[in-house]
Amino acid sequence: xxLVDPDIKECKALVIDANPTSRSALINMLRDMxxxxxxxxxxxxxxxxxxxxxxxxxxxxxxxxxxxxxxxxELLDDLRQAQLLPFSTxxxxxxxxxxxxxxxxxxxxxxxxxxxxxxxxxxxxxxxMTARHRKRALGYIFEAIQGGNYAEAAKLCMGRYxxxxxxxxxxxxMGAELFxxxxxxxxxxxxxxxxxxxxxxxxxxxxxxxxELESGEAPKAALIxxxxxxxQPGYADxxxxxxxxxxxxxxxxxxxxxxxxxxxxxxxxxxxxxxQGMLAFxxxxxxxxxxxxxxxxxxxxxxxxxxxxxxxLLCMLYFDKRDSKEFNRTISSLEQALGRNPDxxxxxRFMNICRVxxxxxxxxxxxxxxxxxxLASDIRDEDFDYECATNLLAMLGRxxxxxxxxxxxxxxxxxxxxxxxxxxxxxxxxxSAAGQDPTYCExxxxxxxxxxxxxxxxxxxxxxxCPANSVEVLLLKGTETGNSKLIDLANAVLTRHAESIENTxxxxxxxxxxxxxxxxxxxxxxxxxxxGRAAGGMMLRVQ
Length: 543
Known about the structure:
The chain contains 26 helices and 5 strands. By secondary structure, it is mainly alpha-helical. Helix 4 links the parallel strand 4 (about 90-95) and strand 5 (about 115). The protein is globular and about 75 Å long.
């Protein structure tokens, strides 16, 4: 039965094709289908700008572009990572026989359908209508997501999966993603495992690895990912999650190698180039960091996929090289970004980090010290996250080799350590950010030791039959330090021993307050990742 779409005349479409003949044919096909407004472009770079600034109901994109270093699939992948495609948009890829397998393998990555050349107008219409029908059929689930009711949306997806209703497989993937979002890792594992066993789909295997990682089982996640990458070496999202696993295990060199492999698959990916450059920066490989981050700037400075954190690191790298021309150019780019978003606290902090080096270069020592103290005064602020910590440490590590005298610097490093040392991996990354300065590294590692002792001493009350005392001590120390490990541990003890603890309401309220203040701000470095989307995750953004 042919699907009918009464709203097709209200739709806006974008055709992306370098060949004028096929581009014209696709435009006419869409107009004959009844699409009300059809725009077109011949270049991927122009298409990226269009899709970042406008919302289209239908996008028809060619896979291959002559004389272009990026494919249609890479464009889609970048847009998906940055969550710039609303759920309502239908994205159809057009491909030749030679690239059919690549497109087919990537079809689950937010692609709504693909056409193999030569194709007919009827084939295009069928793909578009089917995709739009699916979006309408699952609309009630996305209404729940739009309203922020993620747990309810996950249950709706589970119901559709269990009933094997229309588009149950798609619903299963959404449901698993939502269970991860609400930290119901076991339900996510069940869904991913069931789909993987019945369909053996790459995204299900990847989702299972993510669920294992989120539940603290990094070694299990690594085994799944090693198998997946061996089977699907072109599946770029698998590399993203593998790098997260390696960072979790403290293997920075391995994470860097993984991103190098991912860039062989998607060489023009702005987010992955940023991550590679940032990892190289913290690993102390300044030349590689400079190459990757400079290329990121040249490729996507104006793109919404670009993260201004790259400019902060470039400022420090150019300061190290005494390259005043590039240093000033980078600061100018950051000033422009701040000019476009003057109320952004994050960009203001970025700008101040770079101004410290600018003042130092201009020999304005007094102003430089005042600005450093101002930045350090934010350490206990709720919005001071792990990214802020690494930037501040990178700045302090560089100032150690200058004439600047900062008698409070070691105290600031200690505060950072007590707040953000939640594991050996997180503490070692802080040491890397500080440039492996011996004094600062000793303080950071001692900070992790102190946090571990706090946790052990608090848990001793639970072992002796007084879990309420454990929760109270953990909350006291969590309040003092802002350390998410102590706060989460308090929550775990309270949840596990709720029946044996009298009057849990005040404790629960305190846990929730501290978690909202300190545990949602990030304890791992952002690495240029667009907030809101986990590596390898399905795009759940709606218009």
